[in-house]
Amino acid sequence: MNKKNSGPTTDVPPSPEQLPSLRKRPMQSRSRALVEAVEQACLQILDEAGEEALSVNRIAELSGVAVGSIYQYFPNKDAIVALLYERVLDEEAEELLRVRERLVGMPLQAALRDILANIIRVETRLFKLNRAFHLRYHSALHLGRWRAPYRTTGEFIEATWLPLLNMYAHEITTEHHALSAYLLGQGLRSVIRSVLEDMPTQLESSALLDSLVAMAMGCLRPSAVD
Q: Can you say whether residue 106 is alpha, beta or left, with left for phi > 0 and alpha for psi between -120 and 50 degrees?
């Protein structure tokens, strides 16, 4: 006899490189409405009371969905929060395409400033949604790799940052394009991740953006720094 899901189970937790997922995707309009109600209740709690107030019981109270019904679709509250992040990343993936289109004809330094400003803006938006979740799953919340076919960091760098550097080859003096592409694509994101954890009040400061642009230019024009 099958037991009804009425609480948390011993599901294996996802790795930091993988977002928590639903037990099953809603197929019918009724089940989609249920999941939508749960998601909106989760967002309302985070907006009004913060992540400390978030619990499956509170989501159930606010959404009007029974706790047992919630657990039929979500193994835990992180899986509910993950849906919010999926929606934000889908929106930001569309904006990223527009950012890349604007780079055409831009000087190198201006292009780097636009790229890094967008990364900071997205990281800030994700961080404010749920700080603990964002830090825990930061590796999975990578906008540049979101729903993309890149299996590794190397594939992502080779498909995105390296072509960008090649486009600006006439403005770059470094001979180490592959290393510079890695430092820009992975290293600067790691710096931003550290700022999120250690100095979150600096995230939206102009000094952070200025410093990241200077670091990027230092990678690409080391002779100018010397």
A: beta
